[in-house]
Design brief:
It is built from seven helices and 13 strands. It is α/β, with parallel strands linked by helices and 281 residues long.
């Protein structure tokens, strides 16, 4: 009897240890929010050599994570102001039309969260379809790679394709300037991983959900599942060789940890994922 009880306690303790290091007990759920669409006239800009002249629609998500220590937002999508433009806004010399069907602030309200309640905030990078509403989150600590912070707030943000008015209010935010990887809550449940190449300080986020397991939120490390499968890098990336090395590193990380890649802009991959105000556990 004593031996059986001891074995049961050891097994229970082993399960608890596995949960603490692998399943992220601090993460309760994650909301996947529709944060716009980007309609492009020529997909080959993202898939050099193929899909020439093919039109395509890229999806776009923001992710709100409920952790025991509070709310964290990952990316902010296209600007809420675009919701007033049903025909979208034409950018990039007429090659892309961007839409925001519902403002992010309204999606957050449906969940019962105000922007000021979000205390942890990170973006994959500062391009306009990820930073469009960044100025609404001045109450949060900003988690950002040093190279991205320097590009955002340096003398020439436009050189990197950034629109500084999207995030200028974040200059006063408390900021966690990161060189490499960072464990946001200190329990292994939410990890920022440096993934440079698309921009100087691009990063991805790994979230360990209690039921789904580990998911890697791609940002623009890749734009399509196709790109991930075949190692395809857009010709306009900041550093193409570094982009390719990043993809290889993240592929190895995903294999070693069992993390599933969620490609932010791949609308076809998005179909089975529950969308806010539903959530993923």
């Amino acid at each position: 009897m004593k031996k059986t009880l001891l074995l049961a306690l050891l097994a229970l303790n082993g399960c608890a240890m596995m949960g603490g290091s692998g399943s992220g007990p601090g993460v309760e759920r994650m909301y996947v929010i529709n944060c716009g669409e980007n309609h492009v006239k020529d997909l080959s800009r993202w898939t050099p050599g193929v899909n020439i002249g093919k039109a395509h629609v890229f999806g776009n998500h923001c992710y709100l994570i409920r952790h025991a220590s509070g709310w964290m937002l990952w990316d902010t999508g296209n600007a809420d102001a675009l919701a007033a433009r049903p025909d979208g806004l034409v950018v990039a010399n007429g090659t892309i039309t961007v839409f925001m069907r519902k403002p992010l602030v309204e999606s957050l309200k449906e969940i019962g969260v105000a922007p000021g309640e979000i205390k942890h905030f990170a973006m994959s990078h500062a391009h306009g379809d990820h930073s469009g509403n960044a100025n609404q989150f001045t109450a949060a600590t900003l988690y950002v790679q040093r190279a991205e912070y320097a590009a955002m707030f340096g003398p020439e943000p436009q050189k990197f394709g950034f629109v500084p008015s999207n995030f200028d209010k974040l200059r006063s935010n408390p900021a966690m300037i990161i060189d490499g990887d960072h464990d946001v809550f200190g329990d292994g449940s939410v990890l920022l991983k440096a993934a440079p190449g698309h921009t100087p300080g691009h990063q991805v986020l790994v979230v360990r959900l209690p039921r789904t397991g580990a998911v890697m939120l791609s940002g623009d490390m890749v734009h399509l599942q196709y790109s991930w499968n075949y190692g395809v890098v857009p010709s306009f990336n900041f550093d193409i060789p570094r982009s390719q090395r990043t993809m290889d590193e993240m592929r190895n990380y995903a294999k070693s940890t069992g993390a599933t890649l969620w490609v932010n802009h791949d609308r076809e991959q998005h179909v089975p994922i529950p969308k806010s105000p539903q959530y993923v556990e």
